[in-house]
Amino acid sequence: MNSVKASSQPLKTVSPFYRWELLALLFLAYFFHQSDRAIYGIVATSIQDAFDLNNNTLYVTRTVMFTLMALIVPIAGYFGDRFNKRKLLITCLFCWSIATVCTGCVTSILGMIVFNSVGLVVAEAFYGPASTSLIASYHKETRAIALSVHQTAVYLSVIVSGFLAAWVCERFGWRGSFWTFGGASILVGLLLIFRLKDPARVRFAEGSQTETSVEKPSVREFLSMIFRNRSALLLTVGFTAIVFVNNAYLNVVPKFLQEKYELSQTAAGWNGMFWHHIAAFGCIYLGGWLSDKMAKKSPSYRPKQQFFAMALGAPIIAFIGSVNSLTALYALFFAMGICRGFYECNTHASVFETVPVKYRSTTVGFMIFFAFIIGAWSSQMVGAFCDSFGVEKGYRYAFAVLGVAWIIGAAAVGCAAFGTFKGDRQRRIEFDEQERREV
Question: Of 141, 131, 201, 153, which is closest to residue 36 (Cα–Cα)?
Answer without folding.
Answer: 153
